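Reopening closed ticket. The problem is back. First fold of the pair:
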Amino acid sequence: MKNVTLAIDEELIERGRTYAREHQTSLNALLRDLLQRAVSEERESWLSECFTKMDRAKGHSRGKRWTREDLYNG
C-alpha cells in the first residue's frame, strides 16, 4: 500500500477520529473504506443505501421547505 498525505482541518480530523472510535475502526480505515466506496462499481448501491437510511431517519422539518439558496447559505 502507498501512503498519501492529506490536508484536513484539525477539528474535522478529531471529529473523524471520534466517529471511527465509536464504530470500532481507525480514521485510516474509515477514509480508505469511504474512498473505496466512492470509486467502486457498487457506488450506486451504496448511494441507494444512504438514501434509504436518510428516509428512515426520524428527523422532521416541521413543514420547512428548503430552497437551493437555503442549503448553500447553511
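Second fold of the pair, where the issue appears:
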Amino acid sequence: MSRTGPSVAEAIGRSRLLLACYLVVAVLLVAISAVRFQSPEQFGLVKELTDFDAFHIAGRLAGEGRVADAYDAAAMLKVQAEASPIASFMPWTYPPPFTLLMDSLARLPVGAAYALFALASFGFYLAVLRRIAGEWLLPVLIALLPIVMLNLRTGQNGFLVAGLIGAFLLAWRDRRAVAGLPLGLLVIKPHLAVGVGLLALFGRRWDVVGIAAAVVLAAAGAATLAYGVGVWADFLGAVREAGAFLAGGYYPMYRMTSAYAALLTFGVPAEAAMIGHAAIALAAVLALAWAALARLGFAARAALICTLSLFVSPYSYDYDLAILGIALAFVLPDLAARTSGRALAGLLALAWATGGYGMIVNAMQPEAGAAGQAGAGGGLALAGLLLVTLCVATGWLLHRPRAGASDALAPQGA
C-alpha cells in the first residue's frame, strides 16, 4: 500500500502556519458576519435574518417577559418580519434552558452577541478537538471546512453541542465523574445526546448519571424560576407546532440530514416517511446500545456513538454535522495508516459534499431557501444519503489491514 497519503496528511497536521491561517480566516469570517448581523447596510445589503437572529429575538422576547411569544410561531414570525423585510421562517423550539442562555446574550446588540457566541463556542470546540486529535487537528478541520464555515456564518450551536459531546467522551475515557457535566448540559439539544446517554447508562457509571441529572434539574429549575412553570407548556406547544410544520415541508428540507427529510422530498407521504425514519432511528438506537456494550477500542466506540447519534432525530440539520469532527478526530490517525492518498482525497471530497450540500443548493437555487409555506422546503434532501455513504466508506476503510502498529479497532476493555 502506498504511504503517500499518510505522509502528506502527517505533514499537513504538523503545519502550524496553515493552522494559523485557517484560524485567522475563521476570525475574519466572524468579524465580517458580525457587521452583517448588526449593520448590513455597511455592505450595501438589506437585513436578512440568519439563524442567530432567531436566537437573539427569542432571547430578547424572553427578557421582555414575552417568552410565550417566542414559543408561539405566529408571534415569533411576526417579530421576525418586523426585523427584516425579507421573509424568513424560524420558529423557536429550543428547551427553556437554552432560551435562558439566549436571554443573557440578547442583552448585547445582535452583532456583539453573535460574535461572542460564535467565537466562544468555536474556541470550546477547537479545545476539545485538539485534546482528541493532537497533531491531526488541522486535517480534521480541513475535512470539516464547509461545516465550520456554515456554523460560523450562521451563529448556529453546532460547535457547542459537538464540543459538549466530545468533552463528555474525553472525561468518560479518563473515568472522571465530571463527564456528567457536559452530559447534563446537552439538555439544550437532547435528541443529539442519545448515544452518550446510553453509554452512561449501560456503563453503569452512576456518579456520572447523578451529576448529569443534577445539571439537568438545575438548568430546568433556573429556567422555571426565570419564566414560571408555564414556560414548559409553551415549549411543548412549540414542539407540537414544529411537528406539524415538519410534516408540511415548511422547513428548508434540503438542509436536513434525516431519513425523514430525504423520503419526504422524494415524494413519500409524511406518515410513511416518518415510519421509514422511525425504523432507521430504531436501528440507530440499537446500534448505539451495541456500541456502548461491545468490546471495542475506545476510539472506535466514541466514533460510532458520535456518528450513529446523527440518525436518531427527524429534525437534524447540516450544522449538527460538527459532531462528525469529534468522530473523525478519534479515528483519523488509524484511518490514515490504512488508506492511500487517493482514498483519503475521495473521503475529503465526500465530506465536503456532505457538509456543503445545503450551501450548494442555496447558492444555485436561492429560492430553495424561501421556506415558510407548505411544500416550500426547497430541493431534494440528499445530505443524509451523502452522510450514509461517507460513514460506510469510512467504516470500510477502517477495516482494511494496517501496517505495523496495534489495531485501534481491535476488541479492548474500553
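Update: turned out to be a display glitch only; the data is intact. The chain has one domain: 4-39+118-228+242-398. Confidence is low (pLDDT under 50) at residues 1-6, 404-414. Please close again.
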